[in-house]
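question for whoever is on the cluster today: can someone run the full assembly for these? two chains, 1098 residues total. i dont have access anymore since they changed the login thing
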Amino acid sequence: MTQPNRLAAGGRIDRDRPLTFTFNGKSYQGYAGDTLASALIANGVSLIGRSFKLHRPRGIVGAGPEEPNAIMQVGKGATVRPDQRATQVELYDGLTASTVSSLWFDLMGINNTFSGLLPAGFYYKTFMWPKNYWPYFERQIRKAAGLGHSPIQPDPARYDKMHAHCDVLVVGAGPAGLAAALVAGRAGARVMLVDEQAEFGGSLLTTSEQINGRSGADWVAQTVAELESMPEVRLLKRATAFGQYDHNFVGVVEDRNDFAGDSSSDNALRHRYWRVRAAQIVHATGSLERPLVFANNDRPGVMMASAVSTYVNRYGVAPGKRAVVFTNNDSAYQTALDLHAANVEVAAVIDVRAQPSGELAARVRKAGVPVYGGYVVANVRGARRVKRVEVQRLSGEQLTGDRMMIDCDLVANSGGWSPVVHLHCHTGALPVWDDETASFLPPASTHAQRSIGAVTGVSALRDCLNQGIDGGAEAVRAAGFTPGPAPEPSVAPAPCAMPLQPFWLVPKNKPISRGPKQFVDFQNDTSAADIVLAAREGYKSIQHVKRYTALGFGTDQGKLGNINGMAILARTLGQTIPETGTTTFRPAYTPVSFGAMAGRDMGELYDPIRKTAMHEWHVAHGALFENVGQWKRAWYYPKHGETMQQSLDRECLATREHVGVLDSSTLGKIEVHGPDANEFLDMIYTGGRRKMKTGTCRYGLMLHEDGMIFDDGVTAKLGDNHYLLTTTSGGAAGALRWLEEWQQTEWPHMDVFFTSVTDQWATVAVNGPDSRKVVEAVCDDIDLSNDAFRFMAFREGTVAGIPARVFRISFTGELAFEINVDANQGRQLWDAVMAAGQPYGITAYGTETMHILRAEKGFIVAGQDTDGTMTPLDMGMHWAIGKNKVDFIGKRSLERPDIVRNDRKQFVGLLPTDPKTVLPEGAQLVSQAAPETNPSFESPVPMEGHVSSSYYSAALGRSIALALVKGGHQRHGEVIRSPQPDGHVIEAEITGTVFYDKEGARQNV
Amino acid sequence: MLQIPCPWCGPRDQSEFTYAGEAHIQRPADPSQLSDAQWADYVFMRRNTRGRFREQWQHAHGCQQFFNAVRDTVTNRIETTYRPDEIVSGGRP
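^ ran it for u. tokens below:
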């Protein structure tokens, strides 16, 4: 296999280690040390895909994270990676890559032919008008959209997270970053140095400049070796600092496996997400070269000049055979020299500046390369690859003179440099425009961070090293250390440079919308004409222009094109670039995998699962479970052949007629202790607690200060100054926090303590007319008779040989005993109760039956029948408010005019006219009959309320529901309607909320 | 993610804390004496300050203690944190 564009020598590749890879189905060979991009270039693959919107042919433009075009699907099967920049994908043997857009080659190529029909704002305009066209276009756009496919199999790889703290975090391991890390490391500080590349060194890996008389790469090796020997220094390669957040929190994602191949299937650690908290941050993030904007500047073969140098020097490949360099600054002359040194012909250097006079220009001329000062590349010819360029003289804003044709297959262009200020600006700081470098620089920082090196606008190696040494010392001093001895790298002075001439757009001698497109954002096909059009249509803010033209919207986040776009907008609007400003820099700098974010927090580890002591019994008896908060609660216990309703009917009737048993261990339980417990709970609950006698229980409501119910439960008085509170299963943590907040922040003088005991107790609720007989069979030290142990009382004793607290409370309206024991013995108690109940046909029931039984009695479930907008008055629970209480939380709100309105939603019962029809929970309620039968039908239909609970009641032989209806307390007997999505209407009569045993006799026997 | 210095436990990640709204909202001693407007002001109205702001946090996944913080709502810089019972110079801002 040949690599036609591989240079005979040079580069940091290992020519002894050839690697085979596949791109779009064809097999190629590269070398260890290549990126996918450099290997493709080595093989002469210049057309790598089609653009997203116009489907124009595109090639590789850059050599790093800025690459807009070479977006690949890499790997295969479950670990395939979409949205990979070929310039950052390390080559490995067997790598498989493809470009997704090529699939639509034939179908969508037509977009380019009719590109005049797809100007900026096309999607917006189609969305707005004509109204009926959008669904059609949406289908077409969706088919064509996307830059990759997600794998459809589960990911077998592992991802994890590391929490790291350090004194100094250095982002970027180029010359500045390495020098800073060295100074900080020598001070003995905890230093982290992270770099996105596979090798440390940045520009030093390919520079021809020398440090201390040796190559840049030698200095890198020596520096890294010293850093590696320091125990407090942590070096991370292939680690991208993708976001900076408040208080110097930096997200870093490290590739641990993708670079090595498709071996993730053996449970390898794939990506590691480092959550770094740094006392001081040093940004040495460098800068990215920006393109010039000229006609057909998107043709394969048009590349960034610095990328061309990188391919030649680092990877030993020639991206073309005959190059034209087009620039407005000196740095691209180095590319001409690099190409020349690699024996690649440089046809010409086209410089926007009239009299290129820098030292590098002189060297280029000396090498025999013609330099055209005051000229531009006006157009690029060639359909699928650059064939020649049209060069014209620039006079002010005009092209003048004859067009000169220069044959070439490579255009290396440079419009200057854009510092990578992203991280620095993630926390909201705005970058500052600098006229001299024509770039946005990081602002002076108020945070514990600083920027050094090329990100500050300097370009000379000597300046970068010196800033690194100073910045590292400053950071480590700020972190409380004495800087170590500074390295003294000696570097020859930078060649005398000529200043850059800002140049944003090559003029055309006809309207900008005519003739070949001049691209600003390659990934989104945004042209200069699109930006001008947006301005003409009235968009003035860069933020709006971005959204209208999709400038900077791609996965590359406009790393190449944004500054050009802003400058073109500024010029169109007749304002300066700083007046126009930038769009907001947001994380992530480059895309981060979902796996890295999720880490191990998935599947069983996503959220804790709480199980009761009796859980295995429920499983063994076929229970289905429902999630209540983090709890798994038995929902119902279907027997063989039963429908769900048959199971519920059986469980309900067994409990109403004989005895049923519920595992209610999940109810929140909080013990309240202390001399001021009485006084405190009096403020917390609507009902009085002060006069409770030891051994009794009371139901209570907790309100927020706005008067709305947020939790309910039973309080048992265990002793003087000692209470046990129960809360809803899902509300326990919130209730505890509520108690703590009032005690700590409002009444710290009160001597009272709260302890969560939910997990310490298992609760077996025995309900039904036969429940006393069952409990008597397992308890001989409590007198369970009605006279000795009244309803709403509490006793301590021994049940099934276990010390127990027994409460005579009932959530079913039946005679009931709730037995609490040490959770470790919960199963023992449960088994004993089930055995004792066998003669009475004892039946375990789940939460669904619990709901039916409580709804038959009109008992509320806080959070289901109440929703944070319901007061005790709305719920008809005046009885739960202590009449003589001076104050409790929320009391004053109950007198607010809005709360005493009688048209508020109020809690009622509903009896559907058809007793077999069960209303859907959440169904909306209206008064009006359907328009066909209702001459006075009024539209829009006033909404009257909604159904909060609804079941089929076996005990009543009919459906029942609870609902919240406007003014409902005064509307008993009225018929209300619930229109259903399928068009039919369920009618129901408004009633009171107690459907079963209205006198409440059954629980008092 | 903020790093919040709990007055009892020291600096911890924000994920250990729960926000608890504006600080120094004193519950009226005798709510029954207040007009509806006065009561509504206490229950509903908060400053929503842009800049230096006194607020409450709870170290919910730690010591469970509530405390106050002075935070700049623009920069998120936390100037200081203090216990509810600490007297702060200058009193209520």
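summary bc i know u wont read the tokens: The domain at 1-24+49-86 of chain B is CATH 3.30.2270.10 (Folate-binding fold). Chain B touches chain A at residues 1-3, 13, 18, 20, 27, 30-32, 34, 36, 39-40, 42-44, 56, 58, 60, 64-66, 75-78, 84-85 (CB under 8 Å).
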